[in-house]
Amino acid sequence: MSTTHGSTNVHDRAQHALADDFLRQAVHFTTDRLRYKKQAVTGEFGNWEAWRERGRQIRQHTIANLDYYLDLFTRNLEAHGAHVHFAATADDAIHALREIATAQNAKRIVKSKSMVTEEIHVNHHLEEMGIHVVETDLGEYIVQLSGETPSHIIIPAIHKNREQIRDLFEAAGGERLTTETRDLAAFARRTLRRAYLAADIGITGCNFGIAETGSIALFTNEGNADLVMNMPKTHIVFMGMERILPTMEDLEVFAHLLPKSATGQNVITYMSVITGPRRQHEADGARDMHVIILDNGRSRQLGDPDFQAVLHCIRCGACLNVCPVYRQIGGHAYGSVYPGPIGAVLSPLLNNGEQYQDLPYASSLCGACYEACPVKIPLHDMLVRERQRFVASGRVKPAERAAFQAFRQLFGKAGRYQTTIRIARRLQFPIAHDGYIRAKIGPLAGWTMSRDFPVLPKRTFRELWPELTRKGNGRG
Amino acid sequence: MDKATFLERIAKPLGRMPGEPPSPRTVVGVPSFWADRPSTPASRTASFIERFTGLAGEIVQYASIEELRIGLNHVLKDIGATKIGAWGKEAPWSVDVEEVLERWQALRWHAQTERRAFDDIEVGVTSCVCAIADTGTIVIASGPEAGRTVHQVPLIHIIILRASQLVQSLGEALRELAQAHERGDVAASNHFISGASRSSDIENDQTIGVHGPARVIALMLQDMT
Amino acid sequence: MKVSLFITCIVDSVFLNVGISMTRILQACGCEVSFPPQQTCCGQPAFNSGYTDEARDVGKTLLEAFQESDVVVSPSGSCVGMIHHYYPQLFADDPHLHQAAIDLANKTYEFSQFMVQKLQMTDLGARFPHRVTYHPSCHGSRLLGVKDEPMQLLRGVREIELVDLPYATDCCGFGGTFAAKMGEISSAIVEEKAANVADTLAEVLVGTDMGCLMNIGGRLRRTNRPIRVMHLTELLLEGMQLGRGVKA
Ligand code: SF4
User: The LUD domain covers which part of the protein (chain B) (predicted)?
Assistant: First the structure.
């Protein structure tokens, strides 16, 4: 993973996003819609908390025994004739891809939406190899044409309006189009159909790998993944190593949890369960199937009581849709392929460096993400733990550290605390007006830029307390 | 990286020995309140129809095989399609509609089919393994005479099924899939289809038929009454 | 019932009236109220910023202050949530403090939680003839799970006109140090909240956490939206006085 926005930080990127009214409106509109649909569908479904708990338990068990289930999964895959590649790093995965593409002498590749391929920048590498790659999910196609990255893990082109989409399509197809959804979609259908037919390789992600059968379960609404994996002669699956479920029965739970959480749909339009390449007497479906299983920082979370549960994530995007910060700044401001609360938690964990260290601060810790998460990942607690790590790493600003050391000193004893308040009371006089402060100075500036700040009154509650009790402890 | 090393990097931090069996499971699959719901043929039919049509699926029920054949003929006539593709004769058809398919000179899928011949079919006619009442889902397994192309490529997909093929839950269909794996005859592709292909990627405006079929029409023989 | 106040640093230093109101209500309900003066702050500003040692030292003041207390009541769902969810783990290294933390968590209540669950009182005889909207603060409602209690108390008030706040459960953008550190994002969030409050045409915004109310109130004031911001205890006490014919 590398940032798509140079070396800026989340604070600067957020400024940019906050100034973009269209973006914010589009994000509000879409996330609202997804939230309300989710609320409606889970309400109708009933027992949502029991389902969430079930989802959590299954994911917890799976990840706690991941080596076993991955072994079983890959043995079954191989028994069905698929090739399995184990990639410890992004480089390993790209290397495997390069070897397959070279062996096939591939010139053209079609892809269906996959976050893990975004994570390791598959498209970029394919282009470097001189291979023409086309995204086939409508939203991903739009994002690809505009040279951007997805800004939402479920709705990649959430930030684009129909005029912009029309312009992109006209430039790509050399034909005049209207801004009607129907026309734009028809253009995509025509154009992408040609791409499927010409492709040597189809690349998909994997929503769930089923250990007991060695199957890949893929969820789409458009039906593009089916064409991607069945039309070209080779099918490559990229999957994060955690994307496993033990049994088909477990898949039923997630076939309910995922679409309901992601888009508020009762059921996904297409769930494709692929178990190996085409059989001997079959005339369609990919002849070769390769499954590239990626670690890329994931195994580092295993055994860590604070963060192992991040691997329970099923990439539904529900946490983005309820996040007050995502709502204001959209996905690109996170500067990572994984935006929103899950991105703020996951990006620094997978990278383990300075990069993305500021993302855990882009949260008010309101806990809406946890409440929305279908597998109950305590994202808000993880964000605090990441801040703890950052503090422990010694890379925080000295002024901040000094401030909290002062807090410890002054608030660590009631006497000192009281003296502090008294001094602050006197210090605030020059900047206080009418009971409030508006001056943008020091650490207050972030607050007073948009809000009035109340001044400290003449007395504290504790100074008043003797009076309160004197005036009648009883039926006051 | 080789598999053993890769798995070791996982087992070790988890405090597990390579090859160690998994910890006992406390829960598997759906909660019992979901698995143990009562279900009758009539309730399954009603629920399937409600769900399926709720997803823009179209369904017609027939009391006899003959009526279903006539119905299929009507549907094809209404569509006015010139290029129809269908599963092969030996495919697992739920109802025999050979005479209709022959009349319409449908292109038939078989083990030696050149897929390209089907690239521009307008209508695909298939049967299915089963259909799911909870979600309005049609399940289609691939096979030598049951090419995936037949229902994935055209804009219109017609499914021939019997009411007795309805199961209540996704779980029942998935369990059957796992059992097929046990028996060694699991299909390479099991496709769970719930309504028409759709996308909301353009300003949240839902559009159908983006890549898969825009119309999904089920013709169901009511054999449960 | 003997009740100790955990007043919170923000009420102690800024919003005295909330402390006064809570004290008066508890007294009116027959509680014997005490204020252990060793308390300062729950340590949340430091804890949420990743400074655990600093948070622990400040949090210790509460363990000491409430050692002898039977029941502790606080006007903040957020600070009570801190004690409930994070104290046991924050003090896990010292067996003595760990036990004190667990004890404190077990006997500490947010005000509305205490009134409804412990005292089982939802009708305080209050009257408040105004249009009021309620903002449920995230920590109190989501993390502490106090969702319905404030509404139960509000519904017990006569002549009150309660109007639903659009996007009520959305965060106001306070988030402690987040409001200063990510000022622009926080500002965008609070503006949306303030606009939603204004859209209700309520005269009064009521809540259960002064951090959030200071945030929304600060925005309402800056943008000249004349809406009175009250803590639940303030509204209830004023209503009780009105209900008895005492001029508020
Ligand atoms: S963290 Fe939870 S809510 Fe967010 S994407 Fe993952 S599973 Fe969905």
Answer: 48-219
Q: Do A449 and C61 touch (CB under 8 A)?
A: no
Residue ranges, comma separated, of all CATH 3.40.50.10420 domains in chain A are 10-51+66-299
Chain A within 8 Å of C169 (Cβ-Cβ)? Answer: yes
Q: Is A276 in the B-facing interface, judged by CB distances under 8 Å?
A: yes
- C218-228 tens-digit pLDDT: 999 999 999 99
Nearest-angstrom CA–CA distance, C235 and C231: 6
Q: Is C124 helix (H, G, I), strand (E, B) or coil?
A: coil
B136 phi, psi to nearest 5 deg = 65, 40
Distance, in angstroms, between A448 CA and closest chain B CA? 36
Owner of token pair 């990286």:
B1
Closest-CA residue, ligand 1 atom 2, reads A373
Domain topology for C131-243: Rossmann fold (3.40.50)
Q: How confident is the model over B27-72, as pLDDT tens digits?
A: 999 999 999 999 999 999 999 999 999 999 999 999 999 999 999 9
**Chains within contact range of chain B (3+ C-beta pairs < 8 Å):** A
Number of alpha carbons in the 13 Å side-chain half-sphere of residue C117: 16
Residue B71 sits at the vertex; the CA angle it makes with B70 and B77, to the nearest 5 degrees, is 90
> Do the Cβ atoms of B49 and B208 come closer than 8 Å?
no
Q: Do A302 and B109 touch (CB under 8 A)?
A: no
Determine the CATH number of domain A10-51+66-299: 3.40.50.10420
pTM listed for this prediction? 0.95
Of the candidates C48, C170, C214, the beta carbon closest to that of A454 is on C214
Domain parsing of chain B, residue ranges: 40-199+207-221
| Helix H or strand E encompassing C134 | strand C131-134
**Subunit contact C20:A461, Cβ cutoff 8 A:** yes
Residues, chain A, total? 476
Which residue's alpha carbon is nearest to atom 8 within ligand 1? A316
Element (H, E) at B24: none
Does ligand 1 lie within 6 Å of residue A382's CB atom?
no
Pocket test of ligand 1: the residue of A315, A326, A334 to mutate, having most ligand atoms within 8 Å of its CB, is A315
Out of 3.40.50.1370, 3.10.350.10, 3.40.50.10420, 3.60.15.10, select the CATH number for domain B40-199+207-221.
Answer: 3.40.50.10420
> Are A133 and A195 in contact, with CB atoms under 8 Å apart?
no
pLDDT in tens, B111-140: 999 999 999 999 999 999 999 999 999 999
